[in-house]
Design brief:
This protein is mainly alpha-helical. The chain is 59% helix and 5% strand. It has one domain (2-18, 33-274). The protein has 11 helices and 2 strands. Helix 2 packs parallel to helix 6 and helix 8 packs parallel to helix 11. The longest helix has 27 residues, at 226-252. The chain is elongated. It holds the Pfam family PAP2. Residues 124-244 form the Phosphatidic acid phosphatase type 2/haloperoxidase domain.
Amino acid sequence: MNGYLSLLILLLHTSISFGQSDSTVRSPYRVHRSYELPASLVVLGTSFFGYRQLDRYAKLNADEVSQLNPAHINAFDRPVAFMDPNRFDAAQKRSDRFLNISIASPILLILSKRVRQNGLDVVTLYTTAHAVNNLLYFATAFSVRRARPLTYNPGLLIDDKTGNAKSNSFYSGHVSFSTTAMFFGAKVLTDFYHIRGWKRIAIFSAAAVPPILVGVNRMEAGKHFRTDVMTGFLVGAAVGIGVPQLHKLSRKTDRLSFQPQFSLRGQRGLAVAYTF
C-alpha cells in the first residue's frame, strides 16, 4: 500500500507542474460554505446513530437463517457464499485498513498549492460528498433486506449467522465510501489542473485500486456479494465525481443551487435545484 501512496504523491507533484503555482488560482467550483459545510457535518454526525440503528434493523434470527438456501442465490453471486470462514477475520481487517487509507487519501491534495488556496471549499465539497453518500446508503440499506453471504455459509455455526447486521448486504458501504473518497480526490486534482486524456485516465485508474481491494476483501470476509460490491463502486464513483461536477456547473450558471433540507421528522440532507 505504501507503493500506491507514493504513486499518488507522484501524480500530485506531476500535476502541480501543469500550472503556475505562484499566483492565486480561482476555484473551479462554486461552494456555499455557509450552509453546505454545517449541513453536511450534521448529516455525517447523525450518521453514527444511523449505523447503529441499521445494525439492529438488519438482524436475523435462527428461523430466518434456516430458510436460506444457497441454490436461491444467482449464479454470479453464489460462489461468495462458500468463502473460507478461516479467512474472514483477516479479510475484514484488510478491508477496514484499505477503507481508512481511502478516506484519508484526499489529505494528499494539500501538497498542491492550488488546492491549498481553496482549501475550505475543497473540505466543504469532501464532507458534502460523503454526506450525500451516507444518505444514499441509508436509503438503500434500510429499504433492501438482503442476507449477507456468510449467513449461507455451511462452514459457520448458527450463532455466527444470527444477530445484528446480518441482512444489510446490499450494497457495500465500505466500497462506496472508499470509491467516493478516491474518485473525489482524482476529480478535484484533474479539475484544478485541467488534466485531460490519458493522464486523466491514469489518475482515475490509480484511484480505483483501493476500492477494488476493499471490495475483494469484503467478499472474502463473507460480508458482501459481487453485485453488492459492484453497486457500491458505481454509487461511490457517481458521488465522488458528481458532487464536484455539480458545483463546477454551478460556477458556470446561477440557475444551479444547493440548499440544506430539514424535514419535520428530523431527516436531514442536501437539495439540488435547477431553475429553468
